[in-house]
Task: inverse folding
């Protein structure tokens, strides 16, 4: 994988720019040809987005970014490159002309691929010098993040070119899906187009707005489709009877006006057989029960991710979380700052909660406490906050997925710049599962360095500190390892 | 929110069971009526799945689970409940009969709702005693996790019943989408049905298998739909020109055979206007640039979540991560166990990496080190592992999204049951950003308690320990807080 790779990107819009970004961030050198004088700016904007997000997918460093060069001639852009990706406007004659010029200068072993959404490769290669070198590699926006690329050879495409495109797509982290028979719109755009046509009907007929239609997708079926597609979802809906049961139940609705798109296939025994068998095969030996758990874990993980961006299903969860939480009464006892379950997605190969989530829970407790002393979102907006500078954890008990836990927070010291907390993580039956000791420093968010808290916060934190002064020094506080 | 709520679930299959589970886990009492003798088993299975996953969505404890009671008569099930949800088979005459019996015994203020996938509420309420009490509340499988519920009143449905259903749906964490005009299939099933019909064509015509079609969805458009739906996705694809530009580009393809479903709406100026205006409104003042970043953060978060389950796009990423990593050469220096970027999703309200991810990175380093000494997946399968019992972190520098970091691992003590590690987290320019000191204990996974490591591991860890003995005691090791 240390071989130096390079690609030519012909046409640098949203799609071409996305390809360029994916190649570059995977360490490839990229030559761009685009007569648009704005192309350099447009690609640099896509690249900026990609730099911000693509490496974030990985838990390992990607190679050093490749070199980006803009060329005024196709000849110079394609010379000596291993992959040439055409993303010019969707007009057949333009594409054919571009392919002709590419083939005048490209290596004969290079992959020459089109990003076309709908043209068949046997249309694109009409009149080409070497039609065997041309195929479709259809990506999805944003190209730098979404893994899917549909690989569509024409009957004339050489097997070596087809296989090479699959191999190279994997090298840049994509999921190449070989489309075995070329067809207008390949596979995925046909599905998208079907949904899109019905969506336009709904707007046209005044049934729903674009936002309502999008909401119906992103709060519902979209979350299923993001991990299982449509057949596996319905296979699961069939329960123990699988796809046959589902088709028996919902087959008749194919004839019903559940969409305006009424050109439906005949649900023959043969089609039922094919669909049912392929779905069973696809399950790869998993029972519906096992598959349900995979689905549920995927859904929980994705929806928890959307909580972080406070978007779609995640925003709904955040509102509910907020409604479930009420600030505890404060007295001279340690304060109950967290009461929560252990998510299944927090466990690791030892089948218990991973060590890092002990700190995640304590961090949630610290945030709640900071909210209680007035170091809340508004305070942060005003330019002040607390940063943790030191943490000491004792992991005393294993925690399993689904267990209910609580955290209590005790102030050891809360004067001036320093905030010293001691927290206990307990199970429902009050076993001590962990302790967390935390030193926080009050900072100015402008200078990013220590400063005295504002009086509004200082007064409250001092009260808490004085109430907790009377408590015994917690067992385990001030401990060192070793 | 402490008011005690209750619901009746009439029909306890996958959908009815999902409703029961969602109500129960949100603290509601639930009465179930289902003549199927298997119903109790089926619901208990759905409930088991739900208990495992639904609380995992939250970072706050849900109320104590409600009481589940099975009834032999509809009369007993619906009496004194605030929400009655019908999920019997999709046959109009059965549903009408059930509604009649429900209304003989239900409170007049109770919400009486159908889970029907396709019937209109004005079909369901034919011949009902109080048609104003009946509407559709159409959920999505798994009902206990997916937030969407389509609220479809008939022209006769009372506003009070409609509003009450919306209010109650929110209380159990759902996203109620009010469907303003009743229509066969409501909104979402129409979209699903359109996609489904085209998918069946693709299988019927031998273009693709069910698995290939599902892959084209879950590796591509499905990830977009899970957070933005179809209009917002295409609005973004239009770049600075928005939906108008997108429609100018892809409008013509509505007439092309990109799907077999050719009954398309006419793309009149009026429809273009409506779609473009609604999409702009939906963007709520965000520029395409801002929206792209939201989309990218959502995609990164969801795909990272799928890495945990090693599924779909996440499995593709894991393979790539693996290919990017090669074990470091080992000598008498601390070992470079991690080299990685800081994901955008790891930052918090202070605009820097949240404290808990310091431990997540050190945990990754520890895992890599354990792999190097042979305490790998195979060793764990054989019944042994290491558990962390104590952690000490110094957070020395803020880290920003996108920064490249590395971790080095030094063995302080590695004899017998104890493994004492000291790790340094450094930025690309070698600033020390954090240190992590970790005490691990070797355990038997059967007894979950300490034991000596197997000789294969013991020999390697002793070598490492002896190589690192000559290194100076790290600055910060053995430190306590305060």
Result:
């Amino acid at each position: 994988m240390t071989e130096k790779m390079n690609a030519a990107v012909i046409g640098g819009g949203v799609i071409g720019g996305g390809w360029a970004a994916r190649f570059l961030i995977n360490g490839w050198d990229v030559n761009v040809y685009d007569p648009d004088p704005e192309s350099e700016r447009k690609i640099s904007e896509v690249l900026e987005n990609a730099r911000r997000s693509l490496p974030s997918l990985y838990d390992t460093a990607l190679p050093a970014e490749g070199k980006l060069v803009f060329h005024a001639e196709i000849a110079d852009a394609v010379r000596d490159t291993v992959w040439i990706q055409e993303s010019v406007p969707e007009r057949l004659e333009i594409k054919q002309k571009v392919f002709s010029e590419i083939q005048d200068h490209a290596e004969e072993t290079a992959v020459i691929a089109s990003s076309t959404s709908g043209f068949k490769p046997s249309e694109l290669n009409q009149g080409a010098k070497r039609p065997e070198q041309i195929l479709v590699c259809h990506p999805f926006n944003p190209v730098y993040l979404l893994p899917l690329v549909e690989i569509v050879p024409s009957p004339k495409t050489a097997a070596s070119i087809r296989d090479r495109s699959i191999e190279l797509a994997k090298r840049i982290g994509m999921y190449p899906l070989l489309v075995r028979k070329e067809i207008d719109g390949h596979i995925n755009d046909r599905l998208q187009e079907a949904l899109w046509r019905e969506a336009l009907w709904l707007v046209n007929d005044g049934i729903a707005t674009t936002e309502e239609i999008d909401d119906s997708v992103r709060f519902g079926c979209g979350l299923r489709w993001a991990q299982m597609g449509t057949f596996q979802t319905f296979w699961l809906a069939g329960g123990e009877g699988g796809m046959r049961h589902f088709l028996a139940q919902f087959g008749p609705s194919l004839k019903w006006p559940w969409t305006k798109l009424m050109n439906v296939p005949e649900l023959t025994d043969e089609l039922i057989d094919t669909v049912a068998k392929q779905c069973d095969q696809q399950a790869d030996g998993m029972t519906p029960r096992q598959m349900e758990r995979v689905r549920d874990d995927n859904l929980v993980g994705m929806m928890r991710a959307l909580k972080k961006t406070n978007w779609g299903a995640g925003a709904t969860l955040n509102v509910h979380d907020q409604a479930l939480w009420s600030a505890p009464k404060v007295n001279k006892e340690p304060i109950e700052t967290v009461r929560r379950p252990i998510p299944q997605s927090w466990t690791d190969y030892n089948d218990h909660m991973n060590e890092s989530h002990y700190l995640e829970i304590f961090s949630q407790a610290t945030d709640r406490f900071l909210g209680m002393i007035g170091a809340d979102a508004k305070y942060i907006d005003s330019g002040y906050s607390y940063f943790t500078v030191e943490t000491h954890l004792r992991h005393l008990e294993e925690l399993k997925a689904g267990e209910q836990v609580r955290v209590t927070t005790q102030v050891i010291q809360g004067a001036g710049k320093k905030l010293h907390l001691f927290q206990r993580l307990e199970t429902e039956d009050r076993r001590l599962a962990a302790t967390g000791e935390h030193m926080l420093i009050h900072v100015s968010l402008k200078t990013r360095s220590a400063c005295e808290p504002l009086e509004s916060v200082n007064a409250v934190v001092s009260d808490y500190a004085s109430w907790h002064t009377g408590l015994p020094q917690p067992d385990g506080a001030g401990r060192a390892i070793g």
